[in-house]
Input
Amino acid sequence: MNKAHIMLLVALLLGTALVFNHCGQQNKLIPRQLLFGNPDKAALRISPDHQMVSFLAPVNGVLNVWAAPANDIASAAAVTNDTLRGIRIYFWAYNNDQILYLQDLGGDENWQVHAVNIKTKEDRNLTPFEEIPGPDGQPVTLPNGQKLRPRAEIQHVSHKFPDEILIGLNNRNPQFHDLYRLNIQTGKMEMVQQNDRFVGFQTDDDYAVRYALQMTPDGGNEIFVKDQRGNWKSFDKIPMQDALSTSPITFDKTGELLYMIDSRGRNTAVLTSLNLKTKEKKVIFEDPRADLSNIMIHPTEKTIEAAACDYLRTEWTILDPSIQPDMDYLKTVAEGDLLITDRSLDDSVWAVAYTKDNSPVLYYLYDRAAKKATYLFSNRQDLEKVRLAKMHPVVIQSRDGLDLISYLTLPDWSDPDGDGRPDAALPMVLMVHGGPWGRDSWGYDPEHQWLANRGYAVLSVNFRGSTGLGKEFINAGNLEWGGKMHDDLIDAVDWAIEQGVADKDKVAIMGGSYGGYATLVGMTFTPDRFACGVDIVGPSNLRTLLETIPPYWIPALNIYTNRVGDHRTEAGKKLLESRSPLNFVDKIQKPLLIAQGANDPRVKQSEADQIVKAMQEKNIPVTYVLYPDEGHGFARPENRLSFYAIAEIFLAENLGGRFAPIGDAFDKSSLTVPTGAEFVPTLTTALAE
Output
């Protein structure tokens, strides 16, 4: 046992935080509850008639939907009664009487649609189906013995039909979602489109099925339209290179103008309009630095009012002069990146959110006629009293010349002049985002704040394959999982070392989903570069990952086979095996923490189980934490708090940062530790209490 380990163990037993001299005048430890517990209030919404507002807030520690008169938010009351996982996805029905929300079971992502009456609080499960019949008529059974549950998706919600919505449902065939018109008052459903081939549909406000999308063998997309006989014919083709940055968005009020995000013939994705009668195509918005990231569209007129791109930060361009005074005024209300989260049907009232890097999210209700924004709440009030760290956008060059848009957060005591460089090199955590077809962005990030507060530099990198930064950048990641995508991460670490940000001997790699895979790659392919790794729901074997995808992903399988590797061919299998950390566990030299949800439909528990087993067989230490009631990530705050308590001590043990003792972090958590508790100081004791 080395001196650092002894110091850590003593501090844990005494219930104190370990402080190191190089950190200087440090801030107090931020309680994990403030960062990873439930928000106080979040997800502000407005009823279509703007008489009511709603938000998510806890009821007995579980997130539920609350509603209140718009002029008396203090009288808000819970209208839902979820007692386990919490509600995360909800919206108002256009009848103003009901709120619709989605809920799954234990993280399986087989969503069911619920409607709750805000006055009577009657909660109806509109898609209560529990089984999908197989070819033999018997329910489809998963490898773990459980029956495969249908998954509902919201296809369209139109103000023209206040009591009806369009949903997709795969209760007939697990691979394909048929479209149903669903009465949210009575629960009556009527199929409007049977689906035996398409990955999705484009519908309009009249609930007409206008287009269908089918993936091509090379991973591109083909758009189909019905002819006069009702047969599907080709309407447009989207090459594989553009498939992740080109798609229909919506129609205008007449239904004759189709808005699209489109990267064909250019690098960054632009906003276009296509006149379906004249075939005239126009570019409405473009930015050579980054793709279209968001639009503002009038609730009923369906005109495009503003468009945004996210390069280093989100930037809005006004396209309709009628909202210019509103946007000019809202810029004066609060600092941060502005987002209109909801609008009343007559567009007289907006719900507005301001996102900053060192502040909780601020929510306002904006009266357009009065040009007045009224502050309602922040999502985490107690964080307003805490000194949070700044997030610095930085552009790092890869070894082959790509610009890697990245975000660096430092303990503020280490950077007194605020220039984004610490006075002395710090232990660093490389946080790798999931997807990989997603991206990191500027703003409040609880993991960045947590790690910076514990004394680490935190670096998030948009490696090649990340979206939003042009199709050339996306496609540079094709077939580069564990290859050039990982080189980008290593190049970012080298940059941090050269800039005096990171201590080269104290760099950890951590992430979820693809970020978990990148962690395992870092620990096996470049084992000398990282002092430790934290893998959250990451695949360990790319071949088995693709062989066990959810059935409703199969129609889109070619996006994976053309961008990751094809498990159906010998050459593809060879590539996938060469990029799978499972096959290189003997290279692991440094401590590894693995976290997994047992119900994960995307990255099955077997991905964690198999690499843990392989490490055990080679007598390589590993700590494995498993949550039986979670899926692809940890939704229940009790589980999040228990995981971050373990991860915090694990990182302190291996990097030398600060930590808070486990304390009551395991209360009400479903946490299990199948193996390796002894490698995290005090974990065995805490589990026994």
Notes: The chain has a mean pLDDT of 95. The two ends are 24 Å apart (CA to CA).
